[in-house]
Protein backbone atom coordinates (compact mmCIF):
# COMPACT_ATOMS: atom_id res chain seq x y z
CA UNK A 1 0.00 0.00 0.00
CA UNK A 2 1.41 3.37 -1.02
CA UNK A 3 1.19 6.35 1.31
CA UNK A 4 0.40 6.55 5.04
CA UNK A 5 -2.12 4.11 6.48
CA UNK A 6 -3.47 3.08 9.87
CA UNK A 7 -4.00 -0.48 11.11
CA UNK A 8 -6.77 -1.06 13.68
CA UNK A 9 -5.40 -3.65 16.13
CA UNK A 10 -8.75 -5.15 17.22
CA UNK A 11 -9.85 -6.00 13.68
CA UNK A 12 -6.61 -5.95 11.69
CA UNK A 13 -8.30 -3.62 9.19
CA UNK A 14 -5.88 -1.40 7.24
CA UNK A 15 -7.23 2.01 6.19
CA UNK A 16 -5.34 4.36 3.83
CA UNK A 17 -5.31 7.97 5.04
CA UNK A 18 -6.90 10.73 2.99
CA UNK A 19 -4.66 13.26 1.18
CA UNK A 20 -5.29 16.01 3.78
CA UNK A 21 -7.44 15.18 6.84
CA UNK A 22 -8.80 11.85 8.07
CA UNK A 23 -11.27 12.02 10.95
CA UNK A 24 -11.37 9.34 13.66
CA UNK A 25 -14.31 8.69 15.98
CA UNK A 26 -17.26 6.54 16.98
CA UNK A 27 -19.80 8.58 14.99
CA UNK A 28 -21.23 7.44 11.69
CA UNK A 29 -19.67 10.37 9.85
CA UNK A 30 -16.06 9.64 10.89
CA UNK A 31 -13.67 8.52 8.14
CA UNK A 32 -12.26 5.87 10.47
CA UNK A 33 -15.02 4.56 12.71
CA UNK A 34 -14.02 2.92 15.98
CA UNK A 35 -16.79 1.25 17.96
CA UNK A 36 -15.03 1.19 21.35
CA UNK A 37 -17.21 3.07 23.90
CA UNK A 38 -14.16 5.04 25.13
CA UNK A 39 -13.94 6.77 21.73
CA UNK A 40 -15.98 9.97 21.30
CA UNK A 41 -18.14 10.66 18.24
CA UNK A 42 -15.46 12.90 16.75
CA UNK A 43 -12.28 12.04 18.62
CA UNK A 44 -9.24 13.11 16.58
CA UNK A 45 -7.86 14.06 13.18
CA UNK A 46 -4.94 12.62 11.25
CA UNK A 47 -3.47 15.42 9.13
CA UNK A 48 -1.09 15.01 6.17
CA UNK A 49 1.24 17.88 5.24
CA UNK A 50 3.59 16.91 2.44
CA UNK A 51 5.54 13.83 3.62
CA UNK A 52 4.58 14.47 7.24
CA UNK A 53 1.66 13.14 9.27
CA UNK A 54 0.43 14.39 12.62
CA UNK A 55 -2.45 13.58 14.95
CA UNK A 56 -4.65 16.17 16.67
CA UNK A 57 -6.78 15.29 19.69
CA UNK A 58 -10.01 17.30 19.47
CA UNK A 59 -10.47 17.48 23.23
CA UNK A 60 -14.00 16.08 23.10
CA UNK A 61 -13.33 12.93 25.11
CA UNK A 62 -12.22 12.44 28.72
CA UNK A 63 -10.18 9.45 27.54
CA UNK A 64 -7.93 11.51 25.26
CA UNK A 65 -5.40 10.36 22.66
CA UNK A 66 -2.02 8.73 23.28
CA UNK A 67 1.02 8.13 21.10
CA UNK A 68 3.19 5.23 22.26
CA UNK A 69 1.45 5.40 25.65
CA UNK A 70 1.87 9.14 26.27
CA UNK A 71 -1.13 11.50 26.28
CA UNK A 72 -0.89 14.17 23.58
CA UNK A 73 -2.78 17.12 22.17
CA UNK A 74 -0.91 17.29 18.86
CA UNK A 75 2.09 15.31 17.64
CA UNK A 76 3.98 14.47 14.46
CA UNK A 77 3.88 10.73 13.81
CA UNK A 78 6.58 8.32 12.69
CA UNK A 79 6.27 4.98 10.96
CA UNK A 80 5.33 2.31 13.49
CA UNK A 81 3.90 4.68 16.12
CA UNK A 82 1.02 3.24 18.17
CA UNK A 83 -1.85 5.71 18.50
CA UNK A 84 -4.55 5.02 21.10
CA UNK A 85 -7.89 6.78 20.75
CA UNK A 86 -9.32 6.11 24.18
CA UNK A 87 -8.79 2.36 24.58
CA UNK A 88 -8.76 1.66 20.81
CA UNK A 89 -5.19 0.98 19.64
CA UNK A 90 -4.01 1.59 16.10
CA UNK A 91 -0.60 1.48 14.39
CA UNK A 92 0.70 3.97 11.82
CA UNK A 93 2.48 2.78 8.67
CA UNK A 94 3.73 4.07 5.35
CA UNK A 95 5.30 7.26 6.75
CA UNK A 96 8.77 8.14 5.32
CA UNK A 97 11.50 7.96 7.96
CA UNK A 98 13.85 10.85 8.72
CA UNK A 99 16.99 11.22 10.82
CA UNK A 100 15.45 13.73 13.24
CA UNK A 101 12.28 14.02 15.29
CA UNK A 102 10.35 17.00 13.86
CA UNK A 103 7.93 17.07 16.82
CA UNK A 104 10.80 18.19 19.12
CA UNK A 105 11.30 21.39 17.12
CA UNK A 106 7.56 22.01 16.92
CA UNK A 107 7.12 21.60 20.68
CA UNK A 108 9.97 23.96 21.57
CA UNK A 109 8.59 26.64 19.28
CA UNK A 110 5.05 26.24 20.62
CA UNK A 111 5.84 26.53 24.34
CA UNK A 112 5.00 30.02 25.71
CA UNK A 113 6.87 31.77 28.51
CA UNK A 114 5.36 31.01 31.92
CA UNK A 115 5.62 32.59 35.34
CA UNK A 116 6.52 30.45 38.35
CA UNK A 117 2.93 30.59 39.63
CA UNK A 118 1.57 29.55 36.21
CA UNK A 119 3.88 26.53 36.28
CA UNK A 120 2.54 25.69 39.75
CA UNK A 121 -1.05 25.90 38.46
CA UNK A 122 -0.27 23.71 35.44
CA UNK A 123 1.53 21.13 37.59
CA UNK A 124 -1.47 20.91 39.92
CA UNK A 125 -3.86 20.81 36.96
CA UNK A 126 -2.04 17.90 35.32
CA UNK A 127 -1.21 15.89 38.45
CA UNK A 128 -4.22 13.54 38.05
CA UNK A 129 -3.39 13.05 34.36
CA UNK A 130 0.15 11.96 35.20
CA UNK A 131 -0.74 9.53 37.97
CA UNK A 132 -0.01 5.90 37.11
CA UNK A 133 0.73 7.00 33.52
CA UNK A 134 -2.98 7.01 32.70
CA UNK A 135 -4.98 9.94 31.43
CA UNK A 136 -7.87 10.96 33.64
CA UNK A 137 -9.78 14.19 34.13
CA UNK A 138 -7.50 17.07 35.20
CA UNK A 139 -7.91 18.81 38.54
CA UNK A 140 -10.75 21.31 39.01
CA UNK A 141 -10.19 24.95 39.92
CA UNK A 142 -11.27 24.18 43.50
CA UNK A 143 -8.82 21.25 43.76
CA UNK A 144 -5.98 23.41 42.40
CA UNK A 145 -6.86 26.16 44.90
CA UNK A 146 -6.78 23.68 47.78
CA UNK A 147 -3.49 22.23 46.53
CA UNK A 148 -1.77 25.63 46.23
CA UNK A 149 -3.53 27.20 49.25
CA UNK A 150 -4.94 30.10 47.23
CA UNK A 151 -8.44 31.27 46.37
CA UNK A 152 -10.48 29.61 43.64
CA UNK A 153 -10.94 33.04 42.00
CA UNK A 154 -7.14 33.44 41.73
CA UNK A 155 -6.83 30.02 40.10
CA UNK A 156 -9.55 30.87 37.56
CA UNK A 157 -7.69 34.08 36.63
CA UNK A 158 -4.49 32.08 36.06
CA UNK A 159 -6.38 29.53 33.97
CA UNK A 160 -7.87 32.27 31.77
CA UNK A 161 -4.39 33.63 31.05
CA UNK A 162 -3.09 30.13 30.37
CA UNK A 163 -5.92 29.45 27.91
CA UNK A 164 -4.82 32.56 26.03
CA UNK A 165 -1.12 31.68 26.12
CA UNK A 166 -1.72 28.16 24.83
CA UNK A 167 -4.45 29.31 22.42
CA UNK A 168 -7.10 27.01 23.84
CA UNK A 169 -10.42 28.19 22.34
CA UNK A 170 -13.60 28.40 24.38
CA UNK A 171 -15.78 25.30 24.48
CA UNK A 172 -16.30 22.08 26.37
CA UNK A 173 -13.48 20.30 28.21
CA UNK A 174 -11.25 23.38 28.11
CA UNK A 175 -9.21 22.26 31.12
CA UNK A 176 -8.73 18.83 29.53
CA UNK A 177 -7.49 20.40 26.30
CA UNK A 178 -5.07 22.61 28.24
CA UNK A 179 -3.76 19.63 30.22
CA UNK A 180 -3.33 17.62 27.01
CA UNK A 181 -1.31 20.43 25.43
CA UNK A 182 0.89 20.92 28.49
CA UNK A 183 1.66 17.20 28.79
CA UNK A 184 2.38 16.97 25.04
CA UNK A 185 4.84 19.87 25.28
CA UNK A 186 6.62 18.17 28.17
CA UNK A 187 6.18 21.18 30.46
CA UNK A 188 5.17 19.11 33.49
CA UNK A 189 6.58 15.86 34.83
CA UNK A 190 5.14 13.23 37.18
CA UNK A 191 6.04 13.90 40.79
CA UNK A 192 6.80 10.94 43.05
CA UNK A 193 4.26 10.31 45.77
CA UNK A 194 5.93 10.22 49.18
CA UNK A 195 4.10 7.95 51.66
CA UNK A 196 3.19 9.65 54.94
CA UNK A 197 5.68 9.13 57.75
CA UNK A 198 4.40 7.43 60.88
CA UNK A 199 5.23 9.39 63.95
CA UNK A 200 7.05 7.59 66.80
CA UNK A 201 4.09 8.20 69.10
CA UNK A 202 1.71 6.38 66.74
CA UNK A 203 4.07 3.45 66.29
CA UNK A 204 4.72 2.80 70.00
CA UNK A 205 1.97 2.09 72.55
CA UNK A 206 1.35 4.74 75.14
CA UNK A 207 2.10 4.15 78.80
CA UNK A 208 -1.61 3.90 79.58
CA UNK A 209 -2.18 1.28 76.88
CA UNK A 210 0.82 -0.72 78.09
CA UNK A 211 -0.44 -0.71 81.64
CA UNK A 212 -3.93 -1.71 80.51
CA UNK A 213 -2.48 -4.53 78.51
CA UNK A 214 -0.48 -5.70 81.51
CA UNK A 215 -3.58 -5.71 83.71
CA UNK A 216 -5.53 -7.72 81.10
CA UNK A 217 -2.65 -10.18 80.82
CA UNK A 218 -2.56 -10.64 84.58
From TrEMBL:
Keywords: Phosphoprotein
GO annotation, biological process: regulation of DNA-templated transcription
CDD domains given in the database record: FHA
InterPro entries named among the record's database cross-references: Cell_Proc_Reg/RNA_Proc, FHA_dom, Sig_transdc_resp-reg_C-effctor, SMAD_FHA_dom_sf, WH-like_DNA-bd_sf
Pfam families: FHA
Signal sequence interval, chain numbering: none
SUPFAM superfamilies: C-terminal effector domain of the bipartite response regulators (SSF46894), SMAD/FHA domain (SSF49879)
Location of the region described as Disordered in the Swiss-Prot/TrEMBL record: 191-218
Domain FHA: 22-72
GO molecular function: DNA binding
PROSITE patterns linked: FHA_DOMAIN
Tree of life domain: Bacteria
Protein name listed in UniProt: FHA domain-containing protein
